[in-house]
Structure formats: C-alpha cells, structure tokens
Write a structure and sequence with these properties.
about 475 residues, alpha/beta, about 40% helix
C-alpha cells in the first residue's frame, strides 16, 4: 500500500499482488475513516471492484490494459463519469451536459483504473480553502484535534490520498486548486499547462484559465500518473520516470529572486521553505536571482477577480439561473461581484493576461524552475474561515502564489518542504514555462530524491487517517 506506483504496477503484472486486494485495502481505508474525513461526495465501491476484477483477469490472460490498470484513483466531482451525476460542489446536480465523460476519465476507464469515487470540491471550484457549506468541508488529516481546511478547490483529492482511499487523484487547477490541497495535505500536485490536457468533460469555472491536474503521494507517483494520462508522452511511464531522473544532471538551477512570491508569506512558512532550499543547495542545486515581475501583476489581477468571477457568473446566468439563489454564501458573493464586470473590462483583462504570459515566457533563461512557498499562510482552522469576513482574506492569501502560474500560462508543481510549528505541511512550489512539464517533473524528481518522499520527509499523518 505504501509502495510507489512503479513497484505496485510491476507487482500487479507479475502476479505478486492482485488489483482486487489493492482495491479492497483502499476501500477499507475509506470505510473506516470517511465519516470523519469526508473526502468523497460518493464512493463507487462496486465500480472499483469491477474494474479491479477485470484488471486481474486481463493480467492473468497475459493482456495489459494500461499503466493504471487496477490502481485505485479518486476523481474530483467536476469530472463527468457515465452513470453518475456531477454536482460540482453545488446543492443539486448540474445540467446533464456536464455529466458526460471527457478524455481523462475515458483514459482511466480504458486502462481499467479502479475509480473509488468522486471527491468533494468547493462549489463550482471557486475557492482555495476547500470550504463547502452544502456538503461539509473535508477534514485535513494532519490535525487530529482541530478541523482544519484541506485546501481547495480539489478539497477531497489530497485527503483521499492521505486517507489511503486512492493512490492517485484527479483534480483541476484554475488559480491553485491542485497545488493548494497538495501543499496543505503533504502530497504532490502538478498543474498542467493550459491546453496540454483537454478540459472536455469537466465543469468549467473559467474557460480561460482552467487546467486539469493530478495529485499523488510522491513526485515519482505524480510523474508516473502524468505519463499514463498524457496524450503526448510516447514512452511507458516506467521509461518516462527513469528518463527524467537522468535529464537534469547534478546541478539544477533554482530561481528564487521574485520578491512578490516571498514578502507576503508568513515567517513560519518561509522558514520551512528556506530550510529545504538550503538543503538542496548543499546537495548541489544552484540558487540564482531570477526576476518574475509579472507575478505581482498576476496577484493584483487576482484581487480584482481576474477573469474567473466574470466567466462563472456569465455561465450561471446564461445556463443555470436556478442555481443563483442557492449558492454557498462564501462563493455566491464573489460570483455576484463578477457579474458586475463589463464585457469591455473582461476583454481588457484577457489582453492583460496575454501580455503578462508573453513577457513571463522569457524569464526562465537563467534557471530551470522558479521556486517559492506554495501557500503563503499556515493551514487555517475551519472555524476561522466559516464566515465571509475571515474567509476572504485567507482565501486570497492561499491563492496569492499559486495564481501566478495560471495567469502567466506556466506549468507548476507543489511538493512538501516540511512541517510548520503547528505540525502542518508546507509546500514548495516549482514553476516552469508553458509546455515544459517533463522538465518540471525532472527537477522535482531530483529534489525529491534529495529531500525524501513526502512520507519520509513529513513522517506519518495523525491517527485520524489510519484504518
């Protein structure tokens, strides 16, 4: 169960492990902890068992359906899955057009991955803390006493991994919604470049900025899952991971100079990340001053609502007006703000995003990746962000650094840097140019090989996650 995907997938093929046994372990973890952790909107145990059984039969016959055959995977409840309603975190199911499966879910099913269920999301994915007033907020497993937020909007995704209910989790990222939950739950999350993976079959928050992504228990697992799902990778995930480990050499160059990614972070957060970067420098990494002035522009645009609030407001007004009077109060006020933006202002913001992305593309000449804390603040307690007054400032702080990659059309990844003074995970964010996921993952693997996997660096999560 704790073994990396590379080993588990080989064990399945060599019949040292059955998909049925692996899936049953994950379903048992869900059954024994879900009442408290609440990662899932719906658990699809029967479907998972059927897929696992089919995978075992295929392996027994000498067939190989695909790299993720028999691997338990959770799916964010923005993705359509045939035969299941999509709620997108809302009080009722969204229209049937968004229940249809897209390419990513079809790849999972074609490979006979064991989909364990649909995980909770912030309503319409519009929030970075993971709070949902309709269904309840998943509990961050790292605090067994206080109910802390799990990060959002892929709120249940990271929890499902720490819980042990899945080994891979599908999420989405519009301003940080894969990397924030990864940071807050001590897992790894990769946000793909805009256009790298299709958003077909995913309920849209912002057609301009939405990107699919993957959360996993380690960088190695994230790279394996990425290769298994990516339509552009033309080698097996086993070959892909092995190649990436040889792509960087001994001295990756980490760009750290952009002040806007550091100056508003809590001291306890920057201290943890600085410690990790110092370790990497001693291990051979090179740290350089690398400016990214467009980051501050992206953060300013976030405070205005970017184009996101306008785009979700227009969608609801045009296609789903019956939902407007039932919105989560923490989401509804910001959506209503977006509805006041004129078409001229939306177009101006789109042009601004294009200019920023074009300028940012030239900022990586002197470094492999740019590094920063993933989330600028410690993991909030739910009681502190239940109401709008406390929620707004914490939500902006969570999105402060992650929104930069989306607005500047970059790919990005979060991996654990360590624990803060309250014993909660702190993420290290890596950003790379558009379309450079392979290079991003190669650097991340180099870092993980020196800092240790999340389990090794952070230790075990509290007993609340155990069966």
């Amino acid at each position: 169960m704790t073994a990396p995907l590379q080993r588990l997938t080989r064990d399945l093929r060599e019949r040292r492990l059955t998909a049925k046994a692996l899936t049953e372990q994950c379903l048992e973890r869900i059954e024994t902890s879900e009442n408290r952790l609440r990662a899932y909107r719906i658990v699809t145990a029967g479907r998972a068992r059927d897929a696992a059984g089919a995978a075992d039969l295929a392996f027994a016959c000498g067939a190989d359906p695909g790299p993720l055959a028999g691997i338990p995977v959770s799916v964010k409840d923005l993705y359509g899955i045939e035969g299941l309603d999509t709620f997108a975190g809302s009080v009722k199911a969204v229209p049937p057009a968004w229940h249809a499966e897209g390419p990513l879910v079809r790849r999972l099913k074609n490979q006979l991955a064991a989909i364990t269920g649909k995980t909770h999301t912030v309503e319409f994915a519009f929030g970075g803390l993971g709070v949902n007033s309709h269904f309840g907020t998943p509990m961050n497993p790292w605090d067994a006493v206080n109910h802390r937020v799990p990060g959002g909007s892929s709120a249940g995704a990271g929890v499902s991994l720490v819980q042990g209910g899945a080994l891979v989790a599908l999420g989405t990222d519009t301003a940080g919604s894969v990397r924030i939950p990864a940071s807050m739950t001590g897992t790894v999350g990769i946000k793909t470049s805009i256009g790298r993976w299709s958003t077909e079959g995913i309920f849209p928050l912002s057609p301009t900025l939405d990107t699919p992504g993957v959360l996993a228990r380690s960088v190695e697992d994230a790279a394996f899952a990425f290769a298994a799902l990516d339509p552009w990778v033309d080698e097996t995930p086993w070959e892909f991971v092995d190649r990436l480990r040889n792509d960087i050499g001994d001295r990756p160059v980490l760009g750290q100079g952009e002040k806007s990614l550091w100056q508003d972070c809590q001291a306890g957060i920057t201290g943890v990340v600085e410690t990790a970067l110092a370790e990497l420098e001693r291990a051979g990494a090179v740290r350089v001053e690398a400016s990214l002035p467009e980051a501050a522009d992206a953060q300013d645009l976030l405070r205005l609502g970017n184009v996101v609030s306008a785009e979700i407001a227009e969608l609801l007004a045009s296609e789903m007006p019956d939902w407007l009077d039932q919105l989560d109060p923490l989401v509804g006020s910001r959506i209503r703000d977006g509805g006041t933006i004129s078409a001229a202002e939306w177009l101006a913001r789109r042009r601004r995003l294009d200019r920023m992305a074009a300028a940012a593309a030239d900022r990586f000449d002197d470094c492999d990746v740019m590094v920063s804390p993933t989330v600028a603040i410690g993991v909030p307690k739910l009681d502190d962000v239940r109401e709008l007054a406390g929620y707004r400032s914490a939500n902006l702080a969570c999105l402060h650094n992650t929104c930069v990659a989306n607005s500047l059309s970059l790919c990005a990844l979060s991996l654990p840097a360590g624990l803060d003074a309250e014993g909660m995970p702190v993420g290290l964010q890596l950003m790379a140019p558009h379309g450079e996921e392979e290079h991003l993952l190669a650097v991340a693997l180099w870092i993980e090989d020196r800092l240790g996997t999340p389990a090794a660096r952070l230790g075990q999560a509290p007993a609340v996650s155990a069966p």
